[in-house]
Amino acid sequence: MTGFVYSDALLKYRFSDTHPFNQMRLLLTKELLESYDLLNQDQIIIPRYATDEELQLIHQPDYIEAVKKASTNELSDDMCQKYGLNTTDTPNFKGMHDACRLIVGGTLTAVDAVMQGKMVKCVHFGGGLHHGFSGRASGFCIYNDSAIACKYLATKYNQKVMYIDTDAHHGDGVQFSFYNDSDVFTYSIHETGRYLFPGTGGINERGDGEGYLYTMNLPIDAYTEDDSFLEIFETSIKQACEFFKPDIIFSVHGADAHYLDPLTHLSCTHETFKRIPEIILKLSKQYTNQKWIAVGGGGYNVFQVAPFVFAQVYAVMQTGRALNGKLPQTFRDKWQPKSEIKLPETFESDLEAYEAIPRRMDITEKNETMMERVLRHYQ
Ligand SMILES: [Zn+2]
Hints:
The chain has one domain (2-378): Arginase, Chain A (3-Layer(aba) Sandwich), CATH 3.40.800. With 379 residues, the chain is α/β, with parallel strands linked by helices. The relative contact order is 0.13. An eight-stranded parallel β-sheet has the order 2-1-3-8-7-4-5-6, with helices on both faces. The chain has helices at 24-35, 52-55, 61-71, 77-82, 96-115, 145-155, 172-177, 226-244, 270-287, 306-319, 329-335, 360-375; strands at residues 2-5, 44-45, 121-124, 161-165, 184-191, 215-220, 248-252, 292-295. Strand 4 (161-165), helix 7 and strand 5 form a beta-alpha-beta unit. Bound molecules: zinc ion (ZN). Residues 167-169, 254, 256, 297-298 line the site of zinc ion.
């Protein structure tokens, strides 16, 4: 059985009414899965709050204190600046510390469910905040639940963790938390940092010291389409797992590589997001006895993309198969009136508005050359 960590309290992670990071997608994901009869009460697990001690697995105590003060508007402008708080990306909001430590606690709840044998696999789509640094907020992320969870798995449960990040942005906060560490392998496939935040994640970032080769980056070209994305992902992640031989998989499923995402420049369709969990499922059978924890990540098209991407991950984990065809009418009837944009009718209907990319061959070749340069270090 696959666990699903959720409570409405997760929706309180909201910087402002107009901020692109909108956890409403979690509720849509839950209701979509319920409308397919894929999710029932036995599978839902209520998230707990992370403790200060757990936050300190990655974050500095002074940063945690600063976030607490910012939550009640008691942090000076200078201090906000020092810690990356109250910026356009991460504006302060009331109750921020609690909302953020609930996200972290939700991911740890998923970890505990798997490690204590209650579930073989578990998801927490509220998590996946991969940009937070030890002493600084960044890119819509205050606390880095993903890095904390990987550290928690490595220290409390003595696991070798394969961190797989398919969000369109580089998973910089997680990578640099384990750059000198060989217990956590950080893998990230993302749009090249040439034009996209955070700018890191180049092929020469391979880890350092003990952690050398335990970091792998696949920076793909802007406008990469399904075939090339999937070729690069499948080939490289297989090689990474073969090198590392993980005990457990922890994956981040940002939905922002989709061509309808407003913040990035990749050109993938739902085909990519069907195949990603299928590829990971196969690896989990091969290497980890199916032990696998999945979290969310970016995804800024809340009504057309993100819930459908998350639902595919859960569907594959639970049934071994991706969803296809028409979306349940009950789901569309309920949510269409709440959306300003048209909800898709089927899992394939995104293709109607799809425009093929003229430079397709160039992009595919460039991605292949990039991958060869990454993988030759592992042969
Ligand atoms: Zn992203």
